[in-house]
Write a structure and sequence with these properties.
Blueprint: E1 8-13, E2 23-24, E3 27-28, H1 29-46, E4 51-53, H2 63-72, E5 80-85
Parallel strand pairs: 1-4, 1-5
Antiparallel strand pairs: 2-3
Amino acid sequence: MNERKITGVVVDSGHGGDDPGAISGNLQEKDFNLEAANYMTKRLEELGIPVVSIKDTDENISRSERLRRANEAFNGDPNAILISNHINSGGHT
């Protein structure tokens, strides 16, 4: 396996603002994604792991802005990893 040293973690909360993601009743995916991303960022900081959150509020950012923020988080370091939170819904089987 290709061993590499991870230099940091970029956390993305998918959707946001006027893009709610999946919806079920009053529940919106964007709210769960943001809560999960904020928790992950805080926990990684507590563990001493270098972490950057793409956003920590309910905002809608374009795909190009999301990519810009992710790439700039650790100066484009290819050894940083990205976690993008999405909680999708599925149909009945």
